[in-house]
TrEMBL record:
Domain of life: Bacteria
Keywords: Membrane, Transmembrane, Transmembrane helix
Native species: Dyadobacter soli
Keyword Transmembrane helix tagged: yes
Annotated transmembrane regions: 21-44, 64-87, 108-130, 158-176, 183-204, 229-250
Name used for this protein in its record: ABC-2 type transport system permease protein
Length: 256
Protein backbone atom coordinates (compact mmCIF):
# COMPACT_ATOMS: atom_id res chain seq x y z
CA UNK A 1 0.00 0.00 0.00
CA UNK A 2 1.51 3.36 -1.03
CA UNK A 3 1.73 6.60 0.96
CA UNK A 4 -1.18 8.24 -0.85
CA UNK A 5 -3.49 5.36 0.00
CA UNK A 6 -2.52 5.56 3.67
CA UNK A 7 -3.12 9.31 3.69
CA UNK A 8 -6.51 8.99 1.99
CA UNK A 9 -7.56 6.35 4.52
CA UNK A 10 -6.55 8.62 7.41
CA UNK A 11 -8.34 11.59 5.84
CA UNK A 12 -11.51 9.55 5.52
CA UNK A 13 -11.34 8.69 9.21
CA UNK A 14 -10.85 12.37 10.11
CA UNK A 15 -13.77 13.39 7.91
CA UNK A 16 -16.07 11.00 9.75
CA UNK A 17 -14.88 12.31 13.13
CA UNK A 18 -15.56 15.99 12.46
CA UNK A 19 -18.87 15.57 10.67
CA UNK A 20 -21.74 17.13 12.62
CA UNK A 21 -19.40 18.61 15.22
CA UNK A 22 -18.72 22.18 16.34
CA UNK A 23 -15.35 21.98 14.61
CA UNK A 24 -16.98 22.60 11.24
CA UNK A 25 -19.40 25.25 12.48
CA UNK A 26 -16.61 27.23 14.11
CA UNK A 27 -15.07 27.74 10.68
CA UNK A 28 -18.15 29.79 9.79
CA UNK A 29 -18.91 31.34 13.16
CA UNK A 30 -15.52 33.05 13.57
CA UNK A 31 -15.60 35.02 10.29
CA UNK A 32 -19.31 35.72 10.73
CA UNK A 33 -18.54 37.29 14.11
CA UNK A 34 -15.95 39.67 12.63
CA UNK A 35 -18.22 40.73 9.79
CA UNK A 36 -21.23 41.12 12.10
CA UNK A 37 -19.30 43.47 14.39
CA UNK A 38 -18.20 45.58 11.41
CA UNK A 39 -21.73 45.53 10.00
CA UNK A 40 -23.36 46.67 13.25
CA UNK A 41 -20.79 49.45 13.67
CA UNK A 42 -21.34 50.60 10.08
CA UNK A 43 -25.11 50.48 10.34
CA UNK A 44 -25.29 52.29 13.68
CA UNK A 45 -22.53 54.87 13.27
CA UNK A 46 -21.77 54.88 9.57
CA UNK A 47 -22.05 58.65 9.33
CA UNK A 48 -18.82 58.86 11.34
CA UNK A 49 -16.97 56.56 8.98
CA UNK A 50 -18.32 57.18 5.49
CA UNK A 51 -18.14 60.50 3.68
CA UNK A 52 -19.75 61.52 0.38
CA UNK A 53 -17.80 60.52 -2.74
CA UNK A 54 -15.41 58.39 -0.68
CA UNK A 55 -15.38 54.63 -1.24
CA UNK A 56 -17.03 53.18 1.92
CA UNK A 57 -15.46 49.81 1.22
CA UNK A 58 -12.06 51.18 2.23
CA UNK A 59 -13.09 51.72 5.83
CA UNK A 60 -15.40 48.72 5.99
CA UNK A 61 -12.86 46.29 4.52
CA UNK A 62 -10.14 47.71 6.75
CA UNK A 63 -12.15 47.03 9.88
CA UNK A 64 -12.80 43.45 8.80
CA UNK A 65 -9.29 42.56 7.60
CA UNK A 66 -7.46 44.16 10.51
CA UNK A 67 -9.87 42.78 13.11
CA UNK A 68 -9.51 39.32 11.63
CA UNK A 69 -5.73 39.37 11.16
CA UNK A 70 -4.85 40.89 14.53
CA UNK A 71 -7.31 39.25 16.91
CA UNK A 72 -9.78 36.72 15.60
CA UNK A 73 -7.62 34.68 13.21
CA UNK A 74 -4.99 33.51 15.75
CA UNK A 75 -7.58 33.04 18.49
CA UNK A 76 -9.84 31.13 16.09
CA UNK A 77 -7.03 28.74 15.11
CA UNK A 78 -6.20 28.24 18.79
CA UNK A 79 -9.78 27.31 19.63
CA UNK A 80 -10.28 25.28 16.46
CA UNK A 81 -7.16 23.16 16.98
CA UNK A 82 -7.97 22.61 20.67
CA UNK A 83 -11.54 21.60 19.85
CA UNK A 84 -10.37 19.32 17.05
CA UNK A 85 -7.78 17.54 19.20
CA UNK A 86 -10.28 17.21 22.04
CA UNK A 87 -12.21 14.72 19.91
CA UNK A 88 -9.32 12.28 20.44
CA UNK A 89 -8.37 13.30 23.97
CA UNK A 90 -11.88 13.07 25.41
CA UNK A 91 -12.35 9.56 24.08
CA UNK A 92 -8.75 8.51 24.86
CA UNK A 93 -8.56 7.52 21.23
CA UNK A 94 -4.85 7.99 20.54
CA UNK A 95 -4.05 4.48 21.76
CA UNK A 96 -6.57 3.15 19.26
CA UNK A 97 -5.18 5.32 16.45
CA UNK A 98 -1.74 3.88 16.98
CA UNK A 99 -2.88 0.32 16.36
CA UNK A 100 -4.60 1.17 13.08
CA UNK A 101 -2.98 -0.37 9.98
CA UNK A 102 -1.64 3.01 8.84
CA UNK A 103 1.70 4.70 9.54
CA UNK A 104 1.78 7.33 12.26
CA UNK A 105 2.85 10.10 9.91
CA UNK A 106 -0.38 9.71 7.94
CA UNK A 107 -2.41 10.28 11.12
CA UNK A 108 -0.63 13.54 11.85
CA UNK A 109 -0.61 14.78 8.25
CA UNK A 110 -4.32 14.06 7.86
CA UNK A 111 -5.06 16.11 10.98
CA UNK A 112 -2.84 18.94 9.75
CA UNK A 113 -4.57 18.92 6.36
CA UNK A 114 -8.03 18.93 7.92
CA UNK A 115 -7.16 21.86 10.20
CA UNK A 116 -5.59 23.70 7.26
CA UNK A 117 -8.65 23.13 5.07
CA UNK A 118 -10.97 24.30 7.85
CA UNK A 119 -8.86 27.43 8.24
CA UNK A 120 -8.95 28.02 4.50
CA UNK A 121 -12.71 27.54 4.56
CA UNK A 122 -13.01 30.23 7.22
CA UNK A 123 -11.19 32.68 4.95
CA UNK A 124 -13.48 31.90 2.04
CA UNK A 125 -16.41 32.48 4.39
CA UNK A 126 -14.84 35.74 5.58
CA UNK A 127 -14.72 37.07 2.04
CA UNK A 128 -18.25 35.91 1.25
CA UNK A 129 -19.72 37.35 4.45
CA UNK A 130 -17.90 40.66 3.92
CA UNK A 131 -19.22 41.05 0.38
CA UNK A 132 -22.74 40.10 1.50
CA UNK A 133 -22.63 42.54 4.43
CA UNK A 134 -21.49 45.38 2.17
CA UNK A 135 -24.24 44.59 -0.30
CA UNK A 136 -26.81 44.58 2.50
CA UNK A 137 -25.53 47.91 3.80
CA UNK A 138 -25.99 49.27 0.30
CA UNK A 139 -29.66 48.31 0.50
CA UNK A 140 -30.30 49.49 4.04
CA UNK A 141 -28.13 52.61 3.88
CA UNK A 142 -27.94 53.60 0.20
CA UNK A 143 -26.46 57.02 1.01
CA UNK A 144 -23.28 55.29 2.22
CA UNK A 145 -22.52 54.46 -1.40
CA UNK A 146 -21.65 50.78 -1.11
CA UNK A 147 -23.38 50.00 -4.41
CA UNK A 148 -21.42 52.72 -6.19
CA UNK A 149 -18.01 51.37 -5.28
CA UNK A 150 -16.25 48.06 -4.72
CA UNK A 151 -13.00 46.52 -3.49
CA UNK A 152 -13.40 42.98 -4.75
CA UNK A 153 -9.75 42.48 -5.65
CA UNK A 154 -8.29 43.85 -2.42
CA UNK A 155 -10.79 42.03 -0.22
CA UNK A 156 -10.44 38.70 -2.01
CA UNK A 157 -6.64 38.77 -2.22
CA UNK A 158 -6.34 40.06 1.33
CA UNK A 159 -8.37 37.20 2.79
CA UNK A 160 -6.63 34.60 0.63
CA UNK A 161 -3.09 35.75 1.40
CA UNK A 162 -3.78 36.14 5.12
CA UNK A 163 -4.59 32.44 5.11
CA UNK A 164 -1.06 31.68 3.91
CA UNK A 165 0.25 34.09 6.51
CA UNK A 166 -1.28 31.93 9.23
CA UNK A 167 0.54 28.71 8.39
CA UNK A 168 2.88 29.11 11.34
CA UNK A 169 -0.03 29.53 13.73
CA UNK A 170 -1.73 26.41 12.39
CA UNK A 171 1.23 24.07 12.79
CA UNK A 172 2.19 25.41 16.24
CA UNK A 173 -1.33 25.22 17.65
CA UNK A 174 -1.96 21.74 16.29
CA UNK A 175 1.25 20.48 17.87
CA UNK A 176 0.33 21.91 21.28
CA UNK A 177 -3.24 20.61 21.00
CA UNK A 178 -2.12 17.07 20.20
CA UNK A 179 0.43 17.07 23.02
CA UNK A 180 -1.92 18.33 25.73
CA UNK A 181 -5.05 16.52 26.83
CA UNK A 182 -6.36 19.74 28.34
CA UNK A 183 -8.45 22.03 26.13
CA UNK A 184 -7.33 25.01 28.22
CA UNK A 185 -3.61 24.64 27.46
CA UNK A 186 -3.65 25.17 23.66
CA UNK A 187 -6.56 27.61 23.78
CA UNK A 188 -4.99 29.59 26.62
CA UNK A 189 -1.56 29.58 25.00
CA UNK A 190 -2.96 30.93 21.74
CA UNK A 191 -4.92 33.64 23.53
CA UNK A 192 -1.91 34.64 25.66
CA UNK A 193 0.49 34.85 22.70
CA UNK A 194 -2.06 36.78 20.65
CA UNK A 195 -2.65 39.35 23.36
CA UNK A 196 1.07 39.60 24.10
CA UNK A 197 1.68 40.29 20.43
CA UNK A 198 -0.99 42.98 20.30
CA UNK A 199 0.44 44.71 23.36
CA UNK A 200 4.02 44.54 22.09
CA UNK A 201 3.35 45.55 18.48
CA UNK A 202 5.31 48.76 18.98
CA UNK A 203 8.53 46.77 19.45
CA UNK A 204 10.45 45.45 16.46
CA UNK A 205 10.97 42.08 18.14
CA UNK A 206 7.21 41.45 18.02
CA UNK A 207 7.43 40.78 14.27
CA UNK A 208 9.23 37.52 15.08
CA UNK A 209 5.95 36.05 16.38
CA UNK A 210 4.10 33.92 13.79
CA UNK A 211 0.88 35.02 15.51
CA UNK A 212 1.45 38.56 14.22
CA UNK A 213 2.49 37.65 10.69
CA UNK A 214 -1.02 38.00 9.19
CA UNK A 215 -1.26 41.62 10.38
CA UNK A 216 2.43 42.25 9.58
CA UNK A 217 1.68 41.11 6.05
CA UNK A 218 -1.09 43.70 5.68
CA UNK A 219 1.29 46.40 6.94
CA UNK A 220 -1.69 48.48 8.12
CA UNK A 221 -2.59 49.21 4.51
CA UNK A 222 -5.17 48.19 1.92
CA UNK A 223 -2.78 49.15 -0.87
CA UNK A 224 -1.53 45.84 -2.26
CA UNK A 225 1.76 47.51 -3.15
CA UNK A 226 2.42 48.09 0.55
CA UNK A 227 1.80 44.49 1.61
CA UNK A 228 4.84 42.63 2.95
CA UNK A 229 4.87 39.31 1.14
CA UNK A 230 8.01 38.13 2.93
CA UNK A 231 5.85 37.27 5.94
CA UNK A 232 3.94 34.79 3.79
CA UNK A 233 7.18 33.03 2.91
CA UNK A 234 8.20 33.00 6.57
CA UNK A 235 4.86 31.47 7.49
CA UNK A 236 5.04 28.77 4.82
CA UNK A 237 8.60 27.92 5.91
CA UNK A 238 7.51 27.53 9.54
CA UNK A 239 4.52 25.48 8.40
CA UNK A 240 6.69 23.00 6.49
CA UNK A 241 9.46 22.86 9.10
CA UNK A 242 6.97 22.56 11.95
CA UNK A 243 5.15 19.75 10.17
CA UNK A 244 8.38 17.80 9.63
CA UNK A 245 9.43 18.20 13.26
CA UNK A 246 5.94 17.26 14.47
CA UNK A 247 5.96 14.11 12.35
CA UNK A 248 9.26 13.01 13.89
CA UNK A 249 8.02 13.65 17.43
CA UNK A 250 4.67 12.04 16.69
CA UNK A 251 6.41 8.91 15.42
CA UNK A 252 8.48 8.61 18.59
CA UNK A 253 5.76 9.39 21.10
CA UNK A 254 4.39 6.53 23.18
CA UNK A 255 0.64 6.73 23.69
CA UNK A 256 -0.75 4.90 26.68
Amino acid sequence: MNALTYLCRSLLIEKIKISRTLVVWLAFFAPAFVVLVAFVAAYADGEKFYKPDVNPWINFSGHILVGWALFVFPIYVSLQSALYAAIEHQNRAFAYLYILPVPRWSIYVSKLLVLTVLTGLSHIALYGFAEAAGWLLGLLKPHYGFHNHSMHEVLSKGTLLMFFGGGGIIVIQLFISLQSASFIVPAGFGLFVTMAGVISRGFAISTASPYLWPICFLNNSLDMGDWRYSYLLNSLAVFVLGALVSIQLFNRKDII
